[in-house]
From TrEMBL:
UniProt-listed SUPFAM superfamilies: PRTase-like (SSF53271)
Gene3D superfamilies documented for this protein: 3.40.50.2020
GO MF entry, a single one: magnesium ion binding
GO cellular component terms, A-Z: cytoplasm; ribose phosphate diphosphokinase complex
Name of the protein in question: ribose-phosphate diphosphokinase
Example GO biological process: purine nucleotide biosynthetic process
Enzyme class: transferase
Reaction equation(s) it catalyzes: D-ribose 5-phosphate + ATP = 5-phospho-alpha-D-ribose 1-diphosphate + AMP + H(+)
EC annotation from Swiss-Prot or TrEMBL: 2.7.6.1
One Pfam family per UniProt: Pribosyltran_N
PROSITE patterns: PRPP_SYNTHASE (PS00114)
InterPro entries (UniProt xref): PRib_PP_synth_CS, Pribosyltran_N, PRTase-like, PRTase_dom, Rib-P_diPkinase
Organism for this UniProt entry: Faecalibacter rhinopitheci
Amino acid sequence: MEQPAFLFSTRGSSELSKKIAEQYGQDLGKLNIVEFSDGEFTPAFEQPIRGGRVFLIGSTHQPTDNLMELLLMCDAAKRASAKSITAVIPYYGFARQDRKDAPRVPIGAKLVAKMLMSAGATRVMTMDLHADQIQGFFEIPVDHLFASTIFVEYIQNLGLDNICIASPDMGGAKRANTYAKHLNADIVICHKERKVANQVENMMLIGEVEGKNVILVDDMIDTAGTLAKAAELIMSKGANSVRAIATHGVLSGPAYERLENSLLTEIAVTDSIPLKNTSTTKIKVLSCASLFADVMHLVHDNKSISQRFVI
């Protein structure tokens, strides 16, 4: 007998989950979350899931309640005798804590991985991790999807000539090179120096951008300080225009104001994280729902998903 599939959503990713469920071809499952007066909460599945493949959809962006809610749902599914539990995490929070880069600090990305496995997750599906090696923190299968399958089509539809791909930092050079090869475009790299987190001290450009339409590629935008400074630097070097694409629009602190006041023509992000400010004129949101729904179908049918890793 075919193993049934059930889709459930955390509250913080409800809009994206509805789109994924629609693309998947079935409704979200019934889930009730009871809140206590002190803010504590507990999720309860309101339908049997015994022996089924359960997909729990939820990005773990801030507040941390989003992560805790997903963990509790994993535990509830395990105790309800689900046969398999796939944590579908479009944005994997705490991923920037992927190594011990200073004395006496945690490796938060691994801690989250251990918590997900302990809670009962048997598989993880995510998109554009901040560092690829985070997959190695898990002892269960990890489907690491790439938003490039969404963004490449977007770039091609812009109809720009003389395109140049730029990385806002050295760490993103590999990602930018992948886009540049596929689009047959030149590549430049912005080298930045930081003294403290979220604050760029100095930046220089490696490569030529004069007369080119530049597209900055990154995995996330947090305070937008790096992007705004990179755009200013690129335009000062004679570029015709500069745009940005980033998978995850974290957009905290002064991010929206910085982007509105920046020299960026447009910023494209996915809906892995819901926008806090929907009135902005420069940010374009591209949905990742069909990508996740497609891969979820392939996983449920025990088919190869390798074609979804290719731009």
